[in-house]
Amino acid sequence: MADLSDVERMVDDWERDAKQKAERYQRMQQEVGQISITGSAAHGAVSVTVGSNGIPTGVAMTDAVRKMNPDEIAAAVLTAMQQAQSQYPQRIQEIVSETVGDDDTSRHIVATAVENFPPPPPAEEEPEAPGRQLRIEQEAEEEQPAQPKPQPKHRREDGGDDDFGDQTFLRRD
Fold first, then answer.
1. What residues does 14 pair with on adjacent strands?
2. Cα–Cα nearest to 87, from 16, 133, 36
3. How far is residue 49's CA from residue 149's CA, in Å, rounded to a whole number?
4. Residue 55 region, left (φ>0) first, then alpha (ψ -120 to 50), else beta?
5. Which of 36, 30, 32 shows the shortest CA–CA distance to 56?
6. Do residues 109 and 78 make contact, with C-beta atoms less than 8 angstroms apart?
């Protein structure tokens, strides 16, 4: 049978371990709260910063975006955001390793970050200089249907003409 002092020592050890673990998770939470990751696209013309939850906290653009059309700017914002977010799981892994170590809870935290913020799709070749592209297309000339001949103006009996046809226009003076 266990001695009462052994039980007290086990409870004290458990309490001390629980306090230490809580402190480590508190440190982890503080460090995660300070995460700020920036990604860029379009040769640095667009930058997006994500915060501690992976959600964008800032978007910055250089004057180079003036040479880009709206679709290119929108695509660059998304690319920069994905680039920043894709770094989030690695940063979470670093913080977890430094603070709480490897346990079921920390593995779950990292796995959730990987699931929510996967690597970005493979980057397509960016043009050397962002800007508008001129595209000239020629349409096949189609034979236009013959236009109807204009109807002759209605002539009044006194020789004058009006454009009222058979319609009546009344007005108050």
1. none
2. 36
3. 65
4. beta
5. 36
6. no
Predicted confidence (pLDDT) per residue in 19-70, tens digit = 998 999 999 999 999 999 999 999 999 999 999 888 999 999 999 999 999 9
Q: Is the pTM of this model over 0.85?
A: no
Write 27-31 long-range contacts (CB < 8 A, 24+): 27/99, 28/95, 28/96, 28/99, 28/100, 31/95, 31/98, 31/99
- d(Cα 104, Cα 1) in Å, to the nearest integer? 33
Q: Which residue has the tokens 């939470």?
A: 29
DSSP of 54-78: S-EEEEEE-GGGGGS-HHHHHHHHH
Please answer whether residues 128 and 64 qualify as being in contact, where contact means their C-beta atoms are separated by less than 8 angstroms: no
